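The instructor's notes for this session suggest beginning with a concrete chain rather than abstract definitions. Hand out the sequence below and ask the class to guess, before any prediction is shown, which regions might be ordered.
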Amino acid sequence: MKPLISGAHVIIYSQDAEADRKFFKDVLGLDSVDSGGGWLIFALPPSEVAIHPTDEEERHEFYLLCEDIDATAKELERKGVHLKRPFDEARWGRVTELTLPGGGRIGLYQPKHPLAHAKTEARTTAKS
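After discussion, reveal the predicted structure:
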């Protein structure tokens, strides 16, 4: 059965959107399209979403995934990105956060769990 959802669109609100767009383009090297007037929308690598229970006010988080957090952090820091150290060692992965030029923070982690998008990629490959 074909999934109902074809992708996801994440919005990051920023005090300096232009600086954060430059960061995603130049530092992270993500491809983008101009949706008009210089409004860049960035392609993301394969993604996944998790639903966590809470008794508190609902909130949403955004994490970038990496295969080797030490190597990724070293390269980001070489490019002037501030990362929280030491990394947190969670049951589900090694975790940190990085500060965007606009002042916002997003998560970065090296998962210790199987990746959901690996299952989707395998299903897509099997159909080819």
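Then share the key points. DSSP finds three helices and six strands in the chain. The chain has one domain: 17-46+62-127.
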